[in-house]
Design goal:
four-stranded antiparallel sheet, Nucleoside diphosphate kinase, alpha+beta, binds magnesium ion, magnesium, binds ribavirin triphosphate, nucleotide-binding, NDK-like_dom, 141 residues, transferase, single chain, 39% helix
Length: 141
């Protein structure tokens, strides 16, 4: 059917505020099919590995502190044009710039504590999915 995959995390701020259910509902209402889902907590080592690309950025230490501060929800989503459509659904990195009705507009706290992650390319989606899920944890239905 030409579907492809993206990877998402509901970040610790949104989980702690009790927004997980509303965010998942918005994701499924927008045509994304959940094919894997888990509650987990990143260790400092795994957070550093996941965000290694940002290790020289000014916000890196804050980002790691934030991402290990509490549970996250990790999921694999399928849809036609999944990566780009999901980036549109979550909105700009800074919630002040995020379009009306996007997940970050509705649920983000600030530019670092911004509620949700979405992969930025098909290549990175595949890497991030493999980082969080074994192939047998991804359901075909
Ligand atoms: P993500 O990877 O989480 O989907 O977000 P993104 O592509 O929109 O943003 P990216 O540039 O990849 O940054 C990764 C995460 O780092 C935090 N951040 N803080 N100026 C700041 O304080 C700042 N900039 C980025 C955010 O949590 C961002 O999502
Ligand atoms: Mg990114």
């Amino acid at each position: 059917m030409g579907n492809n995959r993206t990877f998402t995390m509901i970040k610790p701020d949104a989980f702690a505020k009790g927004n997980t259910g509303a965010i998942i509902q918005k994701i499924t209402n927008s045509g994304f099919k959940i094919v894997a889902l888990k509650l987990t907590k990143l260790s400092p080592e795994r957070a550093a590995e996941f965000y290694a690309i940002h290790k020289d950025k000014s916000f890196y230490n804050n980002l790691i502190e934030f991402m290990i501060s509490g549970p996250i929800i990790a999921a694999v989503l399928e849809k036609k044009n999944a990566v780009d459509d999901f980036r549109a659904l979550i909105g700009a990195t800074n919630p002040e710039d995020a379009a009306e009705g996007t997940i970050r507009n509705l649920y983000a706290t600030n530019v670092t504590n911004n509620a949700i992650h979405g992969s930025d390319s098909d290549e990175n989606a595949a890497i991030e999915i493999a980082f969080h899920f074994k192939e047998e944890e991804i359901v075909t239905y």
